[in-house]
Specification:
The chain is of the alpha+beta class and 89 residues long. It is globular, with a radius of gyration of 14 Å. The two termini are 15 Å apart.
């Protein structure tokens, strides 16, 4: 996001959500660094264990908390294979 690279930023967003963020970034690429800076201040608030702790960790969820102007946003990442994807913000 700091490089205003819409394609690279959209690549880590869950496929079903990608169009929304792709349009947002395309319409205002100069806002991307400030959006990315929000993630720098995020604190993890939840991490699910793997579906099978001894096996593949493909069903994991991580939730981060971001405080902005007294309001708390939650950002949810889900693991798809070996890649964490932004699922909800």
């Amino acid at each position: 996001m700091n490089n205003r690279d819409v394609a690279a930023a959209a690549a880590v967003i869950a496929e079903g959500q990608r169009d929304v963020y792709d349009a947002l970034f395309d319409n205002n690429p100069d806002a991307m660094p400030s959006f990315g800076a929000l993630f720098d201040q995020a604190r993890i608030s939840f991490l699910s264990p793997p579906e099978d702790p001894g096996g593949d960790a493909t069903a994991r969820t991580a939730e981060y908390e971001i405080e902005r102007d007294g309001f708390i946003f939650y950002v949810r990442w889900m693991k798809d294979g070996d890649t964490w994807m932004l699922f909800d913000f």
